[in-house]
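Quick log. Single chain, no ligands specified.
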Amino acid sequence: TLIAITDDCGLTWHFSEPIVGAGSIQPALFLNSDSTITAYMRDNGPAPKRLMKSISADRGETWSTVHDSDIPNPGSAADNVLLQSGNIAAVHNDTEEGRHRLSVWLSEDGGSTWPFRKTLVDDQPGSETRAHYPAIIQSRDGRIHVSYTNQVPGPEGQPPMRNIVHASFSENWIKD
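-> predicted structure:
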């Protein structure tokens, strides 16, 4: 995995050194208060199924060797955002098998721990329900917005129904 870097608002670009790790793809980055950058990536490799993690201390030019985090994930995309409060919110499938559950997690310590968690979608393993490819942002008014691809069982004898879902909530909602 390579990170594209610009120092002039997109006029020119160069690439980082590779982020080295077996099966790690689709990085979601956030800037820490100490100016390091953390990348969480989906894991297409063997168990344990976790989000993989790498850190850059030089503005994304070089990266630590990728290692498994403590965050369960079935090898699906995740996203995160540094909030106005300085906390980090992450959205991902927080199970090792399937995409039947999608949750938003909140860290108050730069991603070291994730004590606050809310489930957005929760169904049984093996069900037709899928919630995946999430994106997360925070608007100027402080609201957190998550969008994701959603699949739910269709009417009897019909194929599953698919749509895009938008959820909006406050940071306090995650903590409650």
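The first strand starts at residue 4 and ends at 5.
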